[in-house]
Every structure is written in structure tokens, then in C-alpha cells.
Amino acid sequence: MSARETPAGCRFELVYHPTLFFREIQTAAVKSTAILLISCPDQKGLVAAIADFLYRHNGNILHADQHQDSELGLFLMRIEWDLSGFSLDIARFGAHFAAVADRFQMAWRLALSNQRPRVVIFVSKYDHCLIDLLYRHQSGELACDISLIISNHEENRRLAEFYGVPYHYLPLAKENKAEVEQTQQTLLAQHGIDLIVLARYMQVLSAEFTAGYPQRIINIHHSFLPAFLGAKPYHRAFERGVKLIGATSHYVTEILDDGPIIEQDVIRISHRDALEDLIHKGRDLEKIVLSRAVRWHVENRILLYANKTVIFD
Amino acid sequence: MSARETPAGCRFELVYHPTLFFREIQTAAVKSTAILLISCPDQKGLVAAIADFLYRHNGNILHADQHQDSELGLFLMRIEWDLSGFSLDIARFGAHFAAVADRFQMAWRLALSNQRPRVVIFVSKYDHCLIDLLYRHQSGELACDISLIISNHEENRRLAEFYGVPYHYLPLAKENKAEVEQTQQTLLAQHGIDLIVLARYMQVLSAEFTAGYPQRIINIHHSFLPAFLGAKPYHRAFERGVKLIGATSHYVTEILDDGPIIEQDVIRISHRDALEDLIHKGRDLEKIVLSRAVRWHVENRILLYANKTVIFD
Amino acid sequence: MSARETPAGCRFELVYHPTLFFREIQTAAVKSTAILLISCPDQKGLVAAIADFLYRHNGNILHADQHQDSELGLFLMRIEWDLSGFSLDIARFGAHFAAVADRFQMAWRLALSNQRPRVVIFVSKYDHCLIDLLYRHQSGELACDISLIISNHEENRRLAEFYGVPYHYLPLAKENKAEVEQTQQTLLAQHGIDLIVLARYMQVLSAEFTAGYPQRIINIHHSFLPAFLGAKPYHRAFERGVKLIGATSHYVTEILDDGPIIEQDVIRISHRDALEDLIHKGRDLEKIVLSRAVRWHVENRILLYANKTVIFD
Amino acid sequence: MSARETPAGCRFELVYHPTLFFREIQTAAVKSTAILLISCPDQKGLVAAIADFLYRHNGNILHADQHQDSELGLFLMRIEWDLSGFSLDIARFGAHFAAVADRFQMAWRLALSNQRPRVVIFVSKYDHCLIDLLYRHQSGELACDISLIISNHEENRRLAEFYGVPYHYLPLAKENKAEVEQTQQTLLAQHGIDLIVLARYMQVLSAEFTAGYPQRIINIHHSFLPAFLGAKPYHRAFERGVKLIGATSHYVTEILDDGPIIEQDVIRISHRDALEDLIHKGRDLEKIVLSRAVRWHVENRILLYANKTVIFD
Q1: Interface pTM, i.e. ipTM
Q2: What are the C-alpha distances in Å from D223 to residues B273, C256, D263, D286?
């Protein structure tokens, strides 16, 4: 497996996750599809080489989507094929694909549909996003395992139990933040967590914590970013007299509310809406905007470059 | 006519426009409706007093809308009635209504539907908002007169002539801005202008100019304010990687892009949209968002308080 | 209490519910507001008379909204006032208000905010609307009591128990429909039910059943009515190749999917969406569109005329 | 050039237009891109074969988008490449591509970006869609030539002249419909028209006329189809009490308002909106929904199958 240099001037953000990759391989025996994500400098012959590679190994392409950024000279692709009949040992995909990847200086990642990412949900007292994610997961909308819930409050334990998800209560105070983050990281490692979802967690993670999970922490912010970043966005939207309120799901980086935006949506308000109405209306937005981001992430539909997301939906 | 004090802590912005009022009176002879806009401290008996006043003078109420801000203890109302059969001389409305207004400390304004506000459009080279306003005006959607167009470019003269609107070309440079604004104000006075519409004018008006037309200058900003205020909002939206772009119409105050928001709307974009696509998609938003603001203003549907608009639509 | 004749040619649908009214009166002791809903022929002096009546009895108006249909000559109003300080015995409101109501031929209804309507939810196996209503109720968004759940399946019992709502399993077959409806009606009477919510119940109620609860049954239909009325709307939307799918909440009448529409919304789809994606995307619509209807109904915000709803939101 | 059989059970609608194709060839000398549209049974090796063909002739792919319908076993593709450096004589593309096309039983069509389709606009008295198309064309949003305007009224001649487009007034009556259609067809032939846009033409074309321009007539219908097909959709939407009104652009087939839907959008209305407001609000929808359809068509972004459109935007 190979991760090549990117064109100068372009922050390249397709990250190599060895643990994710090897776990996938072990469970690839059952019927499944493979998803290949590629970023590289745009060149002639790219698509032909990729398609030819799959065809030579009897891969039946189910979906393919690509994007070219002509200004940056960048090529991005998501290609999914049926593994039944595929003549390569998928565990040795990297070794075979290396020649193609090297020739075109590709950064790439392979995911297998039957390898479900392991997800932790961080939550405070607010329960609307949590209950929405648990319900969607149960009804089959989210192709992941929800391995555990971590909260600084006890309130949502009963809900977690209803859905059969382990619930860890880790109370937070100013003094113990570093300690609690240490405990959280230990839990994440024990459960082999691939994705952290901040479902209205209301706490700022330390830069050290954030750095440990690049492009693997999704947050929901209750405003139309970059408007009203930081605290109390509904209050500030109310004061400013906006006519629409929004919600934004994004990857968490070290800078608050500055990471790549995954999804946004808005809803209309009027002078008739009190601050409380904004909060109520916003809940529906937050649920939908966060769950879309989680779904796209666990289905390997998101590529990143230049601090922006490409969504191959 | 009376403009009373407002509750402490509440910026009160219902403004007395004597020229507007008196011109209205002269043309009130033809069949028309009257619109009364009221702001005052919320008190028992308010609605009864207003409704009783109209009933005693045989006024047939056609529309009534009100809003109470319970936190500020403020009452706002728009009430429209048929003037046919109304037993008061509308030119002496103020004298008769004074007793009610004084009792409840009302700030109020009377408008007559057959008195069309006189509007000037300021425009640069960009023509999409201009053509949209001219078309809507011609088709009867905007109950105003478009008295003249002022531009710092010659490009839109032919369009103005097509619609029969006088076109004033006032070229702008850094050195002559004060002089040009002086000429503009003279033109505005000559035409008895009630409302200035900045239809992508792309120039910042001086604080002196702005101060002369409180709540009588409407601008269209090509972002979802308060995100991307100032210059080049589409460029910055593109760089930030937002998933929706917006447009905002607002009253102009001395602080750039900070005035009360009248209307906002958004449209979805994706990674497939280049900067140019944002600009194209944004045009449709800008047209609709600006024309709604102009329509509500000329129909006397907008009340202001606490730097926010109440739209009685 | 009085229900007068309506203008000729206008189906008048403000219905007298004696049980609802009297139960309200008994619990009106605690701090609360009163809501008066009025429909009558439009006449001069109406608003003055109503406002004066409330003012004379020291009623502090909190919200008032009205609508005039000039073609039908109809006046509709919703007015809400604070009961603290109100000098009338609210249990005898009708006797006092009769003079005003008679003079203007009003159909009217009084509701008290502290009198929460009793609601039954009818549900099949589909659980997304049920869980959404239960969650919103628990979080305080719905000002009603959810007294019981009736289902022709056992699947949702555990969910009902989580929220502490009695669950009645009444299996349905072609042969026993009349019998089951009899049992349902008995349960409804026992619980003093005011509103029936069909939360994807998937069964057509008999005309006799429907007739017993005029304007008191709300259904969610998974299309943008009147498109795709009847069975399998998502399948038919998929076949027709529409670019948006919708959901519609409406009052149930004897004619299938023909009752007054309360709320509608849509979501964009594309050729990439399989039938299953339509069903998934539609779920979010259905939840939101149904819950808005229930909220407006229990807050007494809906008036009906000419088979249409007026929503005083 | 080859048009192959389609999978059984699938109405296949990629049509061979010899005149379109040959005119394109003559003007292909200037710098341009080529767009290849393909429909065929889904098979392994398809993408590899197409990409390899372009690579062997030094084609630099700029955009590629594909869609698979797994139920019908159908593969659809739009692929665009830079012609500068392309080593094939584009006028002989068909001869060279035949081997690939035959092997996979492709129906295909080639378009050249520098070959602008020739468009006629049919219009009645209503001018809002006409003015919108003319404006967008002038501002560069529509990559086509607007060759002429045909109307059964004189009203829009001045507008046509402003934009420099020939205007043909062909008054219509019941008696002369066949004759007028004959004249229209002669005009279309003389101008080498590729696309007919019915911009609120308000007349039903005969089946014979329609049959002569398969997938080359775009209509705007002022409802959310299939709701309110036929006459007076706004009136019927008003009567039914819908909460959103819509507009639909579609290809015209012999069955009224039944052709493949290209685009739809909606706008919210309320009980406050009179019929006239619906008509006003609908205009903005109609303009946007029609212009999107025309843009996608002239940019060769629309493929058809099973009476549905695939939009590669």
C-alpha cells in the first residue's frame, strides 16, 4: 500500500489507516463489495489504467464517480465493485495494485463493504442527535457498529440500554479534563474505534486528542458555518435577526469549528419565533445534518482536499 | 402626527417621514386603502382602542397583523382598511388619531396604497438584479414608481431605455466620491425619492450619505450574512467549502453589512461547482431575495426594532 | 356556547365538541391562557367587539392572528390571552360571550392551554413516526397527553413500554375489521380521546369510524398530495421519475386522501436514488410533516373552511 | 455511427440525429471538447474499453459520469474530453469507435462543445419565461443559439427585438391549427432547429408535430407533476389547499404532461396567498425550472430510459 506525494500547494488528506485496513481483510470472506478511493495528479490514462486493472481481475464495477479539480490538477475517484468473481485475493490487493498506483503517484485507500466501521458517540445531556443515530443504526440506515457511548452525564444511560449499547459515564470538570481524555482514548483503543461522533457533546476536545484522530472525528455545530462559530450560536442568530437558521456537520481539526464541512442545511424562521423556537427547529436540522455526515463517512463516500470535502453520493 | 418614546433598552426605529406623508395626502382622492403601522409598549386595551377607532369612523378592516415581543414588552401592528366609506378625512387622520396614540405612547405611520413610493436603483455593470426589478415593476409586482437609475457605468443605459426609466451615468473614482454623492443626493431630492435600492452597486456609501436615508436604503449582499460579510463573498464561500450559498437583503446602516436583515435564502452547491457556478447560481438567489425586500418595503410590510425586521406578509 | 350558520356556499367546519369543552373547564384553575377560535361572516366592528370584550374583562392579549377570505366574505380569528387577572369565570365564558357571538353570527370554540388534548396513536410495523412523536412528546414539543397506542402488530410494544404508554395489540384481518373498529372505539371512549393520529397505520378506516371523529383524525400520506394518492406512492413516484418526493399530513375524511391538507414538504431525489433510497429519504419527511400537524392541532392553531386549513402559527 | 438494440423490457431512447451530428463535424475545427453519451447493457470491461479507446488516441478526459441501473442491467455514461491533442479526426470518430460500440451493443451519440444547438422558443402572451431565457442566453449561461421566437401573439415582439432575435407572429385559431403547424415546421427546417422550448406557449401541439421532434421539445408545466396535469393547475392547487406549489420541466410526448420529467421545484404558500399570489410566486419557479432543463439539454447532460431522465450535472 502506497501513499504518494501530492501536487505542490495542495494539502493532501487521504490518510493511511493500517488498523482499519487489516481488520477489513480478515472479514472479507463473506459476500461483499470493495471500494477504492484514489487521489492523484490528473493525468491521461488514469481511468483506463484503473478500469483495466479491475477488468483483468474480473471485477464487475457497480458504481464509479470521479472529480477533477482543473485548477489544482487533481483527480479524485471512488470506485466500487462486486467481490464475487473477483480473481484477486483481496488481502493482497495492495501488492497487485502497486504498479498502477506508483505509475500515477496515487494516494489510495481500500474499504470493504462487509467491514463495518466501529463508532463511538460522545454525548452530553442533549439526546436528540443520540436517539436519532441509534434509531437509524437499528433500522439499517448506518452501515457501522455503534460500539459504545461516552457521556459526561448519566441522563442518557437508559436510552443506551434500550438499544443495547455500552454506556460510559465519565464526569468532566476543569481539573480532570486531561485525565478523562486519557480514559476516553483507552476505551477507544480497546474497542478499535474508527470514528468518533460528537452528537452535541458540548465540550472542546484538546488539540492532542484531536490530532490523534485526523478525519475521524465528526461534529455537529448548530449554525450555518462560518456564521456564528463558537458558543451559543442560536442566541447569536436570534440577536442578529437572521431569517434562516442552519446546522453544519464537519470534521474536527485543532481549530474550533474550522474543519472541512461535510453537510449543511437550513430552515426558515421569522419574527414569530422566540429563541426557544429556534432551538426546537434547529434540533431537526442537527439530526439530519449529522446523520448524513455519519452515513457518508461509514460508506466511504468522503474525500478531502484543500480543507474541503468531496461527497461521492 | 406623533412619535413617542420607546421602552428603555429598545432601539426604536419607526421613522417620521414628513415628505412621504404629505405627498400621500395629495393623491388620496382615488379609491385606495390605508395602512397604519404602530409600535408601542404592550398594554391592555390596545387592540380594542385601535379597532374601535376604525369602527367608529366606518373603516372596514381588510388585513391586520400584530406581533408582541414579551421580553421587551413591545407591541407592533400593521392594519389595513378600505378607504371607501371611511368617514374621516384621511388628510386629517393624525389629528383625530392623536388621542389614541398619546394614550398608548404609540409611534405610528400612515401609508396610503394609492401613493406609490418613488424608488431609485443604484447599479454597477452587473445587470441581473436591475433587469429583474424592472421586469417585476412592469408586470405589476412592485407597487412603486421607479423614478431613475444611477450607475457608475454606461453599460445598462440601453436596458433602462427599454423600460423607459431615466438613466444617470455618474462615473466614480476615489477622488470624486464626495462630489458624486453630492450629485446623487441632488438627484434624489429632485425626484422626491423615498427608497434607494442598491442592486449590486458594488460601492460603499459614505456614512454621511447613509445617515441621510435611515431605513430607506436596501442592499443585496451575496452571502448568507453574517457569514462572509465584506468583499468577495462567493470567493470566500468557495474556499471555505460550504455546501449552501446564500444571499441577504438588508437595510443599510453606517456599519458595513450590519443593518437589519429583511430576507435571506440559500441554494445547494457541491464539489462539482466551480467558483463560476457559485456566481451563476447566486444570481438567481440575489434577484429573488432583493425583489422580496423591495416588495415588502413598498407595501409597508416591514417594521423594525432592536436591529431586526418584523415582516407582516 | 353557540355555533351559528355560515355564509351560503361555504362548508363550515368549526365543530362543537362538548366533552372537550367541559373537561377543559374543570382543570382551568391552574395558571394558563385561553384561546378563542372564531369563524363568521366578515363585518365591520368584529375586531373591535372581540377586543373590547376581552379588555372589559381585563384580558391581556398575548397573540392574535386573523384571516379574511374576501371572496367568501369570511372572517377567521385565533386570539390567546392570559387568564391571570381575567375577571370572568372562564367556566361561564360562553354565557358572557353569547351576546357578541350572536351579534356577529360567530361559530367559535374556546380552548385552555392547561387542558392537554388526549391523543391515541395508531401504528403498524413501521415505527419511525411513532418513535418521533413519542420523543417529541417526552421532550416537551407536543402539548398533549399520549394516552395509548393501538397497533395491529406486536412489534412496537417494547418502544411503547420505554416511553410508558399503554399498548393495545388488536390484530386485523378482513373478517374482523368491524369488530376491531368497535374495540378501538370503546378504548377511545374509555380514554376520552380527543385526537387520533395515524402514524403510518397502513389501514383504511371505515366511513362509519371516520364519521365519528370529524377533524379529529390526522393521517400522514407518503406523497405530495394530490399526486400519488392511494397505495404505494413511493413506487409510483419512482416509476414516474419525479425529481422531488413529498409527504402530506391531512385530516381524514370519508374519501381516501382527500381531506384538508395541514402540512406538506418535499426532498430532492435523483436518478442515483433507488426505490429504497426514496423510502429512506421519505421517512425524515414523514416524521417532520406529521409532527408539525399534530403540534398545530394540539395548540389549537388550525381552522378549517372550504376543505382547506388555515394555520395560525 | 451505430444504434444497437437495448435489453428487453427497456424502452431505449437515445436517438440518432444525423443532421445534428454532421453539422457538428463541420465546425469542429476550433478549440473544443467532445462529449460522448452512451447507453448499453451493463457488462464487465465497458469502462476499461471506453477509457482505453480515448487514451490510445491521446484524449484528456475532463469529466466522466456514469449510472448503472442494476434492475434493468443498463449502463449509461457521459464522458467529456479535450479535443486539443486528440489524435483522431473527430469527423471520423464513428468509424473508429464502431468496434468498441459494436462489441458492447452501445447506443451512443457524440456532441461537440463548440457546436451550439439551435433553439426556437414558442411563446404566448406570457413573457416571464421568454425574458428569462433571453437574458440567460445573453449573459452566457446557455450554450446555444436562440435562432427564432414563434408566437401566436404580437405582444413580445419588442422584447425579441431588444435581444435581436427574429420574431414570427403566427396567429392561431381552431380552424388553422394544422396550417400553422405546417408553417412552424417549415421555419424550423429552414433554421436547422435542434430544440423547441415551449416557454408557457399554452397550446397543445398535435401528435404529428410532437412525433417529429422526439426528445427535442421541452415544456414547462406550472404544477408539480403528476399533480394537476392539464389545464389551470394553479386554480386547482388553490382549490385543493396545497401548502406548496410546483413547476415541472419535461420532454413533450404525445400524451399530455406525461413525458420524462427533467426538473421540478416547489415554493411554500399559505392560506394568506390568494390565487393571484400563487401565480406570481409560480413565475419564479417556472423560470428557474425551465432554464435548468434547457441548460442541461444544450450541454448534453440528459440521458433517457424507461421514460425517466438521468441528469449528469
Answers
A1: 0.88
A2: 28, 22, 12, 9
